[in-house]
Inverse folding.
């Protein structure tokens, strides 16, 4: 394999840029989940019965850890990656050095994963402060966020490798990210939906991430969670080469 | 293939196709250690395509290419670690400062810490960017960006520096400054490869040149050799009304080696300039402007690549 420790150099390049604007960056990305928490949790929640024996806001809040992480990773590896690749020609600059294109892509994946972790952790802190995190199992959400980051960034960079232009990212968000956001059991249990929708949801990474974050945050831990982890690991491994292949095809061949 | 130590680049039957389109068509050339070698040619000639293969960016379609004694297809990483690359379009990190651009780039070569800092500072001083070290790259002028891009390409002490149109889009002062820096680099024994369509640049900097068009080599040699071979010593440039060009050429035919019609002016290469001038004075033509000057690469360029050439 042609991938070495040099992926770290790529990660550090993005991190150096990120450090300059992190405050604006973080604020922007964390206000949105708070709006959902306010609107759905406090607003809608008043009209909703308990779910699994919990007040609606307590049940819903852990899912926001997963969605916040997903949006951060997806935005990073679509619009931001595309900017670097297409306008700034950052990838071209880097691959003129001993770092190869596969390492650039993996560096981007790792940086997107870092953002997934960061934005997930911010939500954990916020909902903890609101008393919505009852269990110490929540610490295990961190590796889950890493898995989520890998899964989402791989999907996003795959799309970035394919798109003809920056406008085409709209499709990705409308067809992939938003459906995951709405139908992965973040805002309501999927039991009431048609079986077909439930089956489709099962094939989306976010569904498994939400299962994991909710169970760990609430402390309702059981062995079935290992299947969700396994699902994510298989997904990440299965599509790993796809973005590498598409980027090489796009930029070099 | 046995490779010659004093050859920095050896290209044999080098070919690059994009789909069915021949961008570089079966060309052979060598670049020697310590020289400045230029690729000259009109837009779309295949210059960038050729240097991208040297930079191990673009895979070859066929042929062999050795850089620094190593095969580009097998030792990409090793070659890249000893190469400096200045792309046709600047690709600096716009959100980072001038200094950070160098430090981050150094890291790609595993070059870090105090040594990298020192090298970066030395390069900024050399390129007269010291005062700008904390400015954002996006705020630099075009000329400064270009200098920073060249500085960045030198961060790993490359044995070979490949520059794709190093002075593209620069004003004359900025261009002269880049030329001066490149000459200083050459004096430090760095092999330079550049592409350009500025003939003056090629003339001033290059020891040897390759003129190409349509993916093929038209000629290869020193600028002086090429000028002598294709044009001669001198050129007489004339401005005359277009309808008088043919009759005039008819009149002077036996006194010139060749001529070139550039639309608004006519260039003649005289066998003997004095005789030609006398002949012209005796003709009734309406010569609005005439200039006898030494022949240069531009004449060669037009002769080899231009239309309207009559021998
Ligand atoms: N990635 C590509 N896919 C298809 N065709 C390409 C590609 N890159 C270059 N070409 C074509 O190959 C030919 C040579 O291009 P190249 O960029 O090497 O020219 P150049 O000599 O550098 O020109 P310029 O002076 O304009 O920079 C052109 O006709 C160009 O359209
Ligand atoms: Mg070019």
């Amino acid at each position: 394999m042609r991938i070495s420790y040099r992926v770290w150099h790529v990660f550090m390049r993005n991190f150096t840029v990120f450090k300059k604007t992190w405050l604006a960056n973080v604020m922007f990305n964390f206000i949105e989940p708070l709006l959902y928490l306010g609107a759905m949790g406090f607003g809608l929640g008043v009209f909703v019965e308990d779910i699994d024996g919990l007040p609606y806001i307590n049940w819903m809040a852990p899912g926001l850890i997963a969605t916040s992480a997903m949006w951060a990773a997806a935005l990073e590896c679509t619009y931001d990656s595309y900017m670097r690749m297409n306008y700034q020609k950052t990838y071209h600059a880097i691959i003129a050095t001993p770092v190869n294109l596969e390492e650039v892509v993996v560096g981007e994946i790792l940086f997107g994963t870092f953002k997934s972790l960061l934005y997930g952790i911010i939500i954990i802190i916020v909902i903890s402060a609101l008393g919505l995190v009852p269990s110490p199992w929540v610490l295990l959400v961190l590796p889950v966020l890493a898995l989520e980051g890998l899964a989402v960034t791989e999907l996003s960079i795959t799309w970035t490798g394919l798109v003809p232009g920056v406008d085409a990212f709209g499709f990705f968000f409308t067809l992939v990210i938003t459906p995951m956001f709405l139908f992965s059991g973040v805002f309501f249990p999927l039991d009431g939906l048609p079986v077909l929708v439930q089956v489709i949801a099962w094939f989306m990474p976010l569904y498994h991430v939400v299962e994991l974050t909710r169970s760990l945050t609430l402390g309702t831990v059981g062995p079935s969670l290992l299947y969700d982890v396994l699902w994510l690991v298989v997904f990440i491994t299965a599509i790993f080469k796809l973005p590498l292949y598409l980027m090489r095809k796009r930029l070099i061949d | 293939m046995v490779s010659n130590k004093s050859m920095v680049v050896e290209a044999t039957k080098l070919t690059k196709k994009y789909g069915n389109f021949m961008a570089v068509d079966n060309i052979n050339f060598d670049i020697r250690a310590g020289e400045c070698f230029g690729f000259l040619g009109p837009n779309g000639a295949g210059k960038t395509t050729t240097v991208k293969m040297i930079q191990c960016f673009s895979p070859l379609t066929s042929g062999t290419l050795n850089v620094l004694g190593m095969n580009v297809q097998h030792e990409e990483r090793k070659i890249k670690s000893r190469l400096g690359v200045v792309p046709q379009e600047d690709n600096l990190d716009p959100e980072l400062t001038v200094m950070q651009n160098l430090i981050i780039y150094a890291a790609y070569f595993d070059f870090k810490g105090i040594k990298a800092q020192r090298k970066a500072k030395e390069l900024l001083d050399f390129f007269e960017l010291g005062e700008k070290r904390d400015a954002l790259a996006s705020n630099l002028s075009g000329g400064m960006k270009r200098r920073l891009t060249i500085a960045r390409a030198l961060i790993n002490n490359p044995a070979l520096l490949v520059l794709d149109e190093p002075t593209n889009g620069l004003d004359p002062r900025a261009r002269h400054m880049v030329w001066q820096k490149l000459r200083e680099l050459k004096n430090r024994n760095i092999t330079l490869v550049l592409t350009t369509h500025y003939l003056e640049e090629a003339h001033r900097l290059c020891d040897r040149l390759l003129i190409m068009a349509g993916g093929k080599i038209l000629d290869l040699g020193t600028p002086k050799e090429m000028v002598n071979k294709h044009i001669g010593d001198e050129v007489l440039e004339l401005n005359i009304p277009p309808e008088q060009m043919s009759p005039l050429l008819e009149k002077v035919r036996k006194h010139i080696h060749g001529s070139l019609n550039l639309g608004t002016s006519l260039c003649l290469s005289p066998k003997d300039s004095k005789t030609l001038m006398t002949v012209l004075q005796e003709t009734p033509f309406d010569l609005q402007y005439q200039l006898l000057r030494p022949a240069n690469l531009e004449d060669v360029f037009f002769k080899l690549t231009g239309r309207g050439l009559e021998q």
About this structure: Chain A touches chain B at residues 6, 9, 12-13, 16-17, 20-21, 88-90, 92-100, 252-253 (CB under 8 Å). Residues 180 and 204 of chain A are 7 Å apart (CA to CA).
